[in-house]
Amino acid sequence: MDIVTDPHEALKSAIAALADKTLLLMDDDAPFRNRLARALETRGFTVVVAEGVQQALEMIEANPPAFAVMDMRLEDGNGLQAVEALHKKRADARAIMLTGYGNIATAVAAVKSGAIDYLSKPADADDVVKALLAVADHAPPPPENPMSADRVRWEHIQRIYELCGQNVSETARRLNMHRRTLQRILAKRAPK
Questions:
Q1: How confident is the model at residue 62 (pLDDT cuts 50, 70, 90)?
Q2: Are 7-133 and 149-187 equal in CATH topology?
Q3: Which one-letter DSSP state was computed for residue 136?
Q4: What angle do helix axes 125-133 and 30-42 make, rounded to 10 degrees?
Q5: Residue pLDDT, tens place only, 97-143
Q6: Which residues, in sequence order, are bridge partners of residue 49?
Q7: What's the pTM value of the predicted model, to 2 decimals?
Q8: What are the sequence ranges of the domains in the chain?
Q9: What one-character-per-residue DSSP string does 181-192 give?
Q10: d(Cα 105, Cα 109) in Å, to the nearest integer?
Q11: DSSP letters of 13-65?
């Protein structure tokens, strides 16, 4: 009996054993969506992508996938709508939510709508696969290389800055931060 020591190979083996490898990835952030789609395809999933809720709902209606990775907040709606539609169409589907707005209330809403897990963006492809393949009532192991607290803070600031149309004053106001402090943070490279 061969023992698989490479975690990537272990995940690929687990995916290869699946009868249905179809996966819907819905995210409006094109670079992130494309990177994650490629990573999931290399691990063995058959990935289709949707840029928004409406497109995802049409794909779910036409051919409901076995797995789904959904962004929580999109320009044309909320990812919870797509998760609910997927579970109405295919009760055995396993969906996880990704979001840059991590808090307890949205996590509870995601689980109530049928998601099996809830991950903060940007999520590592291996963490996504582990969450999708986790056995019911058994949490996946913690990530091997989680983001540092500094990186999480930096990602949050960047997200708010983008949502405010790259307006430094508005971003500083919303983050309750001094404008010059925010400018110094934005001028630095992302922490590891």
A1: very high
A2: no
A3: T
A4: 60
A5: 887 765 566 666 777 777 888 887 777 888 888 888 876 555 556 66
A6: 25
A7: 0.65
A8: 7-133, 149-187
A9: HHHHHHHSPPP-
A10: 6
A11: HHHHT-S--EEEEE-S-HHHHHHHHHHHHHTT-EEEEESSHHHHHHHHHHS--
- Classify domain 7-133 by CATH number: 3.40.50.2300
pLDDT tens sequence across 40-50? 898 889 999 99
Q: What count of residues does the chain have?
A: 192
Residues 66/93, Cβ–Cβ less than 8 Å: yes
Q: How far is 12 from 126, CA to CA, in rounded Å?
A: 10
Largest CA distance in the chain: 61
Q: Tell me if the bond preceding 122 is cis, omega within 30° of 0.
A: yes
Q: How many CA atoms lie within 13 A of 3 on its CB side?
A: 1
CATH 3.10.450 applies to domain 149-187: no
Tokens for 180, please give them: 């010059």
Instruction: Give the DSSP letter of residue 73.
Output: E
Beta strand 117-120 pairing with 67-71: unpaired
